């Protein structure tokens, strides 16, 4: 089994915004693969017109790098969902150290959380562990249960060879590749009111 390449613990940094250059503690944990700086920079260039004042959901948070980058660049708030107790604790510690107050960490299984009472988000980061088959299982309740604002943006990170069946209302805006990873930004089109 080939081990995923990742930087050493503690070497993740926020690329831009009010927290630019801040370092995040990163646990050396199997399956944890924070989104690289270059990919985050590209993603947030794509999101630049939409991130200011946005309510964000970092669904499989891990280190929280995507959500923290969003806050650094002007998002109004971010909810981080992480099922691993140690990772959720580390994420809470990073947020406290960086004095980020417009964030909350929910220690929960993402699918269980999505089955609960929904609140709409403007930007959702969908980057589940690559070992599971969680993209469609997460996308369906995001779309059908009221978790997405009418014209929400959804970022999806997956293996480059994965064939994903995402909701028909998610329109591909931009995509890129980094090694064996495909990253894509979708824009939600409101459902056709005639149907």
Written description of the protein model:
The chain is 26% helix and 28% strand. The chain has 195 residues and is α/β, with parallel strands linked by helices. The protein has one domain: Vaccinia Virus protein VP39 (Rossmann fold, 3-Layer(aba) Sandwich), CATH 3.40.50. It starts with 11 loop residues before the first strand and ends in a 7-residue tail after the last strand.
Task: Set down the secondary structure blueprint.
Elements: E1 12-13, E2 23-24, H1 37-51, E3 55-58, H2 65-72, E4 77-82, H3 85-97, E5 103-107, H4 110-114, E6 121-126, H5 135-144, E7 148-159, E8 170-178, E9 181-188
Parallel strand pairs: 3-4, 3-6, 4-5, 6-7
Antiparallel strand pairs: 1-2, 7-9, 8-9
Give a short summary of the structure.
The chain is of the alpha/beta class and 195 residues long. The chain contains five helices and nine strands, in the order ββαβαβαβαβαβββ. It has a seven-stranded mixed β-sheet, sandwiched between helices. It has a two-stranded antiparallel sheet with strand order 1-2.
How would you describe this structure in keywords?
single chain; 195 residues; alpha/beta; Rossmann fold; seven-stranded mixed sheet; two-stranded antiparallel sheet; 5 helices; 26% helix; globular; disordered N terminus
Euclidean distance between termini CA atoms: 48 Å
**CATH superfamily membership, which one?**
Vaccinia Virus protein VP39
CATH class division:
Alpha Beta
- Which architecture name does CATH use? 3-Layer(aba) Sandwich
Give the radius of gyration.
Answer: 16 Å
Number of helices: 5
The secondary-structure class comes to alpha/beta
Report the mean per-residue pLDDT as an integer. Answer: 85
Question: Quick one: how many beta strands?
Answer: 9
In which range does the helix fraction lie?
25-40%
Instruction: Write down the oligomeric state.
Output: single chain
Most strands sheet: 7 strands, mixed
**C-alpha geometry:** globular
| Strand order across the largest sheet | 5-4-3-6-7-9-8
């Amino acid at each position: 089994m080939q081990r995923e390449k990742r930087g050493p613990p503690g070497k993740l940094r926020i690329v831009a915004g009010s927290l630019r250059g801040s370092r995040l503690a990163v646990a050396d944990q199997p399956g944890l693969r924070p989104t690289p700086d270059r990919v985050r920079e590209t993603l947030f260039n794509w999101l630049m017109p939409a991130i200011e004042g946005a309510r964000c959901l970092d669904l499989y948070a891990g280190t929280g790098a995507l959500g923290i980058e969003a806050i650094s660049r002007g998002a109004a708030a971010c909810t981080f969902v992480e099922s691993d107790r140690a990772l959720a604790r580390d994420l809470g510690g990073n947020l406290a150290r960086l004095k980020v107050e417009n964030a909350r960490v929910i220690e929960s299984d993402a699918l269980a959380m999505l089955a609960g009472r929904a609140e709409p988000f403007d930007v959702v980061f969908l980057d589940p562990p690559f070992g599971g088959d969680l993209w469609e299982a997460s996308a369906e309740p995001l779309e059908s249960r009221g978790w997405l604002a009418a014209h929400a943006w959804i970022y999806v990170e997956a293996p480059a060879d994965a064939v994903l069946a995402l909701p028909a209302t998610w329109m591909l805006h931009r995509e890129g590749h980094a090694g064996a990873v495909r990253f894509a930004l979708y824009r939600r089109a409101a459902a056709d009111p005639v149907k």
